[in-house]
Amino acid sequence: MNVLWIHAHPEPRSLGGMLATEGRHALVESGHAVTVSDLYAMQWNPVVGAADFGHDPARRLRVGSASRRAYDAGELSADIAAEQEKLRWADAVVLQFPLWWLGPPAILKGWLDRVLVHGFGFGVADPATGRVRRYGDGELAGKRGLVVTTIGARESSFGPRGIHGDLEDVLFPLHHGVFWYTGMAALPPLAIHGADRADEGAAARAATRLRRRLAGLACDEPLPYRSEHGGGYDEDLVLRPELSPGRSGLAVHYR
Question: What is this enzyme's class at the first EC digit (predicted)?
């Protein structure tokens, strides 16, 4: 497989930095090709702006239409175009980051904002039907996505009754709103808890867990989300009442 590893941690000597190196080695040893986007090392610009699209700053910027025009014309800024080319090449994408304020660092959110532009990450239409392709379909359909995250809090504090909430709900915006929306199959995440207190033994155990998960990157069962066009949603994109009757919440979007 071709694997794009997107790493978002400012300290290469951190547990996250060690895991990024360990993961890359594990994949290469298994015969995979790996490309790494180390966002802090790249000094990635996370801020969307007119220069991304060759847009005249004197005119009002409408991000959706400006990004679509630039994408269609091949006029996106070079850093965005390079990351899109990496995504086209990849069979699987790993997003690796520390969980800060129940989400990824701003630099990774900015990567998503700038790279997944209109016409590439969203607003993709089926040329035969004109139907918008998303949630199980899209420009990135056929690829797999894996979140690897280091978390300072203890594992027990994440769950149906944990104070931080269930980790699957916390990561829903990435799993469902990024991976699945763009067509990628979202794999169950790998979370390393207690990262701030990890000693050498804990780091070694985390590396072993990572290697085991990466061994299943091509074959592990993805999260069983419902596709938008699979018949489960009505014309207002609401789950039909006969499916998961009487229930609500994010889990209803599982098949």
Answer: oxidoreductase
